[in-house]
Specification:
- The chain is of the alpha/beta class.
- It has helices spanning about 55-60, 80-85, 100-115, 115-130, 145-160, 175-195, 205-210, 235-240, 245-255, and strands spanning about 10-20, 25-40, 40-45, 70-75, 75, 85-90, 165-170, 195-200, 215, 225-230, 265.
- It folds into 2 domains: about 10-85 and about 165-260, 3-Layer(aba) Sandwich (Rossmann fold), CATH 3.40.50; about 95-160, no CATH class.
- The strands form 2 sheets. Strands 6-7-8-3-9-10-11 form a 7-stranded mixed beta sheet, sandwiched between helices. A 4-stranded antiparallel beta sheet has the order 2-1-4-5.
- It is globular and about 50 Å long.
- The structure holds adenosine-5'-triphosphate.
- Adenosine-5'-triphosphate binds near residues 20, 50, 53 and 55.
- One of its GO terms (molecular function) is ATP hydrolysis activity.
- This is Sulfonate ABC transporter ATP-binding lipoprotein.
- Keywords: ATP-binding, Lipoprotein, Nucleotide-binding, Transport.
Length: about 280
């Protein structure tokens, strides 16, 4: 699926996250999380509501700090990686600025970086081409469908050519057909750019279809209970009908229920092999 190169994109070691520590509303969102994501790989996080998936993503993005443990991105501390724009983010709400055209939304991270106008324009055009929206560069977000807005958000996340893409239920609000089309587009984009991806979803089929590995988490306090390897080869329409795809879905479903996921790796045995590295 993706072109893999050596190395680790993301590493979390002994990570715990406690919100409101010492207060009556203290919440342990994550405990004992060890996770490494191989460069160029696609990893999904799945688990019951409130198990800490978004928190894990936010730790990688340096939007919250771990209570214990370390988070490194591209071999550097998460904070340094954020300042160096080592990753792009796309959330469920596309989060576009209504008063900016599509192209100027995509240019925004480049503007923040101080990139010159000419290069910004060229890069935005390139990214919009990639997501199939070149003809909509001068439109405003309100003139686009939800799926198109989500593609703009992906183009914006990729505009600085980040080696890592963090996505939190980006397709959650879309109809099934649009969702499947965007899944295929995302895989194509990741393959052509060599981007590593961490993808939060509630959909088992989506996690299996997209991922090299599916990280299964338990209810609060969130921990990784299982890492399920997926090996479906190049994805396409036939994949969605294949026995292997359904077998993958069954494995993840079992892991989520706490039973043994045949072919899955219990988390305790997993750290030796970085997630997504082959
Ligand atoms: N800033 C915060 N302050 C206090 N508690 C928080 C904060 N952010 C998250 N939490 C708590 O941490 C736990 C994990 O939340 P998180 O959003 O990471 O879960 P999730 O798995 O992404 O949930 P969902 O699938 O419903 O989106 C929840 O109990 C949540 O209430």
């Amino acid at each position: 699926m993706t072109e893999r190169s050596e190395g680790t994109a993301v590493a979390l070691t002994g990570v715990t996250k406690v919100f409101n520590a010492g207060r009556p509303d203290e919440v342990t969102a994550l405990t004992g999380v060890d996770l490494t994501v191989g460069r160029g790989s696609f990893v999904s996080l799945i688990g019951p509501s409130g198990c800490g998936k978004s928190t894990l993503l936010r730790l990688v993005a340096d939007l919250v700090a771990p209570t214990t443990g370390t988070v490194t991105v591209a071999g550097k501390p998460a904070r340094a990686a954020r300042l160096d724009q080592e990753y792009g983010i796309a959330f469920q709400q596309a989060g576009l600025f209504e008063w900016r055209t599509v192209a100027r939304n995509v240019e925004l991270p480049l503007e923040l970086r101080g990139t010159g106008r000419r290069e910004r324009r060229a890069r935005a055009r390139e990214m919009l081409d990639l997501v199939g929206l070149a003809d909509f560069a001068d439109h405003y977000p309100a003139q686009l469908s939800g799926g198109m807005q989500q593609r703009v958000a992906i183009a914006r996340a990729l505009a600085v050519h980040p080696p890592l893409l963090l996505m939190d239920e980006p397709f959650g609000a879309l109809d099934e057909m649009t969702r499947e089309r965007l899944q295929d587009e995302l895989l194509r984009i990741c393959a052509s750019t060599g981007t590593s991806t961490i993808f939060v979803t509630h959909s088992i089929p989506e996690a299996v279809y997209l991922s090299d590995r599916v990280v299964v988490m338990s209810a609060r306090p969130g921990r990784i209970t299982e890492v399920v390897d997926v090996d479906l080869g190049p994805r396409g329409e036939a994949t969605r009908q294949s026995e292997e795809f359904f077998a993958g879905i069954t494995r993840v479903r079992r892991a989520l229920r706490g039973g043994p996921a045949k072919g899955g790796v219990p988390a305790a045995a997993a750290p030796a092999s970085p997630v997504g590295e082959r």
